[in-house]
Design brief:
The complex is a heterodimer of chains A (275) and B (373).
Chain A: H1 14-20, H2 24-31, H3 36-43, H4 50-58, H5 66-71, H6 83-93, E1 109-119, E2 122-134, E3 140-148, H7 178-181, H8 198-207, E4 211-223, E5 229-236, E6 244-252, H9 255-264
Antiparallel strand pairs in A: 1-2, 1-4, 2-3, 4-5, 5-6
Chain B: H1 4-22, E1 26-30, E2 35-43, E3 47-51, E4 60-63, E5 67-71, E6 77-79, H2 87-94, E7 103-107, E8 112-120, E9 124-128, E10 134-138, E11 142-146, E12 152-154, H3 158-176, H4 178-185, H5 198-201, H6 205-231, H7 237-249, E13 257-262, E14 268-272, H8 273-284, E15 289-294, E16 299-300, E17 304-305, E18 311-325, E19 328-350, E20 353-372
Parallel strand pairs in B: 13-20
Antiparallel strand pairs in B: 1-2, 1-5, 2-3, 3-4, 5-6, 7-8, 7-11, 8-9, 9-10, 11-12, 13-14, 15-18, 16-18, 17-18, 18-19, 19-20
Classes of the chains: A alpha+beta (275), B alpha+beta (373).
Chain lengths: 275, 373
Amino acid sequence: MRFFFWLLAFCAFRPVCAQILQNEVTANFAHQVKQIDEFIERFNNQDNTLIKRYAERLDTTVRFRRENLIKSLFNASDPDWNREDILRFIAQANDTVKPVYLDFFDNHWYAEVNCAVLYRGKPNKLTLVLKIQREKNGASKWVAVSAIADYLRLPVRLDTTTGLNPLSHATDFMNMDLLATDKKNIRNYLPDGHHNDMLSVFLYESQNNRLAISQVNKITYHFMQVGGWVFTVGRFNRQTRNSGWLINRLLPMDAEAKRKYALEKLNLPVEMRTF
Amino acid sequence: MSTPLSRYIHTVAGLLFIFVRAHAQDVVYQTNGKKLECKIIEVTAQKIKYRIPQNPGPAYSMESADALLAFNASGNYVAFPLAEAQQAQAAGFMNPVVGRQFDVIVTTDNQAVAAMELSVGGKEAKFKNDKKKDQKLARTKITVILYKDGRHELFVDPAKAAAALTAAKPQVDKLTGADNAIKTDASANTKEPQATGDAVAFPGGPEEFERFRNKALVKVDELGTYLATIVNPQTPTDKSNSTIDLAVTLFVNEAARVEVSNVNTGIKNKYKIRDYLRRLKLKGADYQQVEVSYADITYASDFRKGPDGNYYGVVSFVQTFKGLVDGKIIYGDVTQRNVTVILKLYEKAVDGETKKLWDVFLADIGIQETRKL
């Protein structure tokens, strides 16, 4: 259902803006969510966030309500939003007793970074998933927690009958060489549920100069720390007020669904799939 | 002057304060009937700022108009609405409570009564008054009890309790000694803690962080001025070259890179800062005249400590570029620049001694060309 109710988010000061603003670029820049840090500030309704200071500069009586700020963080050009989901999400985030905040140092949020790469001399694509790691001395850094690319995956087995037979030990595992040669059925030699550690494969290939990152093409942030929800944030480069880092997907999700999402979408290792 | 010892004492005192508060709970009774358990960090006539202990995050605020009553863990309270003239009351709310040996009963006729050895039954409350004489009071005559351990109990709905507590406030303050505390501590610092813990860890504290943040904005502004000079075809070659040299000195070193991304083509190119500035100079030569303008607002993120011990932030600003030939715009774009700012220690010789000082430097820049004019 097409709706633009979030455009009402700034209705309290838009008329004032319209009268005063001479410079559309400045106005768009002020409204644009310029960094993911600013996204977090607006989501949390922080007093010092730029949009508030900007609006107060134009109209000292302007007051922001948190639900309106959160609404303005959704990509308004998407006609397929589920209005009920958005309203439920905002109500949960803005609950007066147990409000939801985002913290830069939260555990369950990740950056999905789509890269252009050269793999074995040919252009290809790679997705790296990163998270913030906090150090003991208060420092922090982004670290890669998974990699995703078809060429890093173990192949789907063609023949389920190969493998090391249960008496292999009696022949001193003389067929062990099959692990290196039965390439198409390599999964037969691994336990069920084996986690395809593509990050290690990526590191091995790049360490051996077979894989090099050319540039970052696209970034999507996955916020999984809000109870019952997963939402993603992407960048919308356009000269409108509804631009910058905006929510482009909102999914109601219980803990089990989040575990599945963490594995299937982000290929996260098992220790990061606890919700 | 802040010495290492005084900073240590200050830090320990702060930790103790946090420890005591962490084990207690503040409460706000709201006009919508809900009871918000939180940790109140500031109360003014307009706003109540608080944090939720179970959900650590930056401070949240609510309009004071949406609140009836706020109690802190010490048993101090503020009833709303709060007039500007009652700001001292709000300041007193944040002060440590003066210890007392008795509970305080606020009655339905808005009287505050000191009560020792208080026991509250189903029909009445029994206690000893300040002359140690046994007293009884029907429950129906009680609006609120403020216990000496900081707890409170409402015997009527919060709106009625707020009215009674407002009326009884002078008596309550007199009994608890809070009136003196307000007079002596009204100027106490009730400033909201920083949203990030990093600022606290930075030598010099949040104020120094803010100073360097402002310095970073000045340097970014300076860079903008240099860029406009470099790209201007009217600038003599000697001057544009010296301006490039000046611009480079703003950066942490010449290895700082600039990545230019064109959102229309998806192509991204990286240049070292000096190379980028030289290319910018050549770009200007394509026109007879250029116009470069900047939005008068910038966004600066918080500083965060990196693994190398330096602090990192990013300043975003937007630039409009127009290239003119014969007075007509033949090219124009709007670009957003995200400039990394590094707050780092550097060594400086002062009076023959080498001192380590903090300063801000510019580093890698991301540039997005978003629109052709």
